[in-house]
Design goal:
four-stranded antiparallel beta sheet, three-stranded antiparallel beta sheet, 11 strands, 21% helix, 39% strand
Length: 171
């Protein structure tokens, strides 16, 4: 027999005394393993960590994300979300993309958004940009120039998206 030092992460399913499946993980930078003459592990020294609740929380977060994305995409009102963290991400739902006639993104130009007098609206005055900066923007009329040249009047408003502890997450 010989002693082998390994670095590893193992995840497996265990049954507890009540017959419930539990996930366990063994993560260690050093695991002491005793192997026989054929290289088969016969003993291992280490610890286990029950990660069932972590995995269940990850699954619930993924279900919530999928649910919210579906609600946003199916909403008949145009919605554009701007993340507050760098790198900035911009997401428009299906109705918003149909309304403005183009994709949106953090590097997209916004020269197609106009004031009611048809003068360009500076990016700093966009409701979403102002809301991402912490300002609540009450409803106001703007114009959107579609790629076809058609001008479409839109009613816009925006508000910061805040976490429960007041951290600004986006708009």
């Amino acid at each position: 027999m010989r002693l082998v030092i390994l670095s590893l992460l193992l995840v497996w399913s265990l049954g507890n005394a009540q017959g419930q499946a539990r996930l366990a993980a063994k993560q260690t930078s050093v695991a002491l393993t005793v192997v026989d003459e054929n290289g088969v592990a016969v003993r291992m020294v280490g610890t286990l960590l029950d990660i069932t609740n972590l995995k269940l929380a990850e699954q619930e977060r993924e279900r919530s994300r999928a649910w919210l994305e579906t609600v946003l995409d199916e909403c008949p009102v145009g919605i554009i979300l701007i993340s507050g963290a760098a790198p900035v991400s911009v997401r428009a739902n299906r109705a918003a993309r149909a309304l403005i006639g183009r994709e949106v993104g953090p590097a997209a130009t916004v020269d197609f958004v106009l004031r009611p007098d048809e003068t360009p609206l500076p990016p700093s005055e966009l409701p979403g940009v102002r809301a991402a900066g912490g300002e609540r923007v009450d409803w106001r009329k703007l114009l959107v120039r579609r790629p076809t040249g058609e001008l479409v009047p839109v009613l816009t408003g925006a508000a910061p998206i805040l976490s429960r502890d007041g951290e600004r997450l986006g708009a």
